[in-house]
Amino acid sequence: MSSYKIPVPNSKHTFRDDLFKGKVLFCTGGRSGICYKIVETMMSHGVDAAIVGRDAKGLLESAQSLERSTGSKCIATSADVRDPEQLGKAVKETIDKFGKIDYVICGAAGNFLAPIDNLSPRAFKTVIDIDLLGTYNTIKATIPHLRQSHGAYLHISATLHYRGLPYQAHVSAAKAGVDALSNVLAAEEGPRGVRSNVLAPGPIGNTEGMSRLTPKGWKPENDIPLGRIGDTSDIANAAVFLFSPAASWITGTVTVVDGGEHHIRQMS
Ligand code: HXC
Question: The complex's ipTM?
Fold first, then answer.
């Protein structure tokens, strides 16, 4: 069955400053928001990183700022996750620079609010292509390296598809697909020592998703049992755990980090 023996970690080693020293992270969507914070937090634990996205100038500025704030190395490599050839080049640049890839974050996403009858086939397909096909393309481009390093994937999903959320048909369908893809990846690659998990953030402050996609006047404290919207650090902390050796027997899971939001239904 399994050809790879999973080491059992000592919990004293989790969350130490040099937890990810000597490791390499490849992150799509790391220019801003949640993924930027995850990359920054992992770099502050010693990881070297490649951030990948369409906006070459913005990526370079983010990579420089990540290096300044953490002291670890970061390269910016521009690619559209919808294009396997561009992703292949981004992976090659990462390998040329760092020699390997241990961790992958599939975080690139696109979204907007639109009711189904206003959503053109091309609009629906655009978000499926960025969020779901982009995840598949990222997996295909990186899997040989993750097999070598016995590495781990983390997919940034959402909670909106657990129920029906108006105006989010395209992204709900895409994120449900991402969750399913991660499970299959976990099943197929587990025997080779590669893990795959999903992180599902709730509403997170100071992100493009929050500023563009939530209704005006929404009071999150009324809808979130833990009484506040999330911080990008809430997501980064969960990501550090899921990549750490403390999670070495965790694969094929979805970790929801949302202050309890998706569980509750208001009494009126
Ligand atoms: C209806 C829209 C639309 C809108 C675009 N389209 N915006 N339809 N309402 N508001 C349609 C266009 O008319 C076109 O269809 C099709 O979508 C493709 O649009 P393009 O602009 O050509 O696509 P592209 O340049 O590739 O841009 C992709 C994008 C864009 C998704 C539309 O918004 C983008 O690049 N976003 C990246 C950043 C982002 O969205 N981040 C937020 C992530 S937050 P037609 O038929 O007219 O040609 C997130 C959180 C998820 O993901 C969970 C949230 C709670």
Answer: 0.93
